[in-house]
Amino acid sequence: MAISPQAPDPAHSDAREPRRGFLARIGATLIGALIVIVPAASSLAVLLDPLRRRSNGGRFLRVAPLAAVPDDGAVRQFPVIAERIDAWNRTTEPVGAVYLRRAEGAQEPECFSAICPHAGCFVAYDGESGTFKCPCHNSSYTVEGTIISPSPSPRPMDTLECKVVGDEILVKYENFYTGRADKVVKQ
Q: Are residues 81 and 164 located together in one domain of the fold?
């Protein structure tokens, strides 16, 4: 007696095909989702990266030892040095300058930005006349930072918040928009 191959049971094979098709669709959907989600998530991380980084603006930075600013009212200039980070490098470099002055008997110094509020030029201190002078458009300021008329500057010299911690003077270094009567921090 010859054994004949059995014909597949139609009811049995129909049940397997929908299950296999369903699992194939689920697998294809998961792979497709991974193909879309991974690049989308990485591009979103790159897009939002500048928003997560901290800038040096608005942070207190060490400027000078307290002993470098005597309490005789004399004006001293100091560079503001901050750490900068780009894609590959971490460097320490000057980001600006400030003028510090401490009145007689005062513990906390006064701090002025060395940037002219008129056009953004670097303001120089003239020790002979006891005034700050901008070489670009002849803006002049008193030792307290107020405008000496006539002056094209729309506002007095920009003051910066500073504090003494231990023996160090820390300054909250910020840049402001120039040519405006109101003092607005650049972001």
A: yes
Arithmetic mean of pLDDT, 163-185? 90
> Residue 178 carries which DSSP code?
S
Per-residue burial over 143-152, b if 16 or more Cβ lie within 10 Å, else e, is bebebeeebe
Render pLDDT for 96-142 as a digit per residue (tens, 0 to 9).
899 999 888 888 899 999 999 998 999 999 989 999 999 988 899 99
Whether residues 74 and 127 share a domain: the answer is: yes
Strand 124-126 to 110-113 pairing: unpaired
Residue 185 falls inside a structural domain: no
Residue type, 129: S
Domain containing 41 equals 12-53
Going by pLDDT thresholds of 50, 70 and 90, the confidence category of residue 5 is: low
CA atoms within 13 A on the CB side of 125: 20
Give 55's DSSP letter.
Answer: P
Token pair 């458009």 in the structure block, residue: 137
List the beta strands (DSSP E) in 50-187: 60-65, 75-85, 90-101, 110-113, 124-126, 131-133, 140-141, 162-165, 168-172
**Confidence band for 56, pLDDT divided at 50, 70 and 90:** very low
pTM of this structure: 0.67
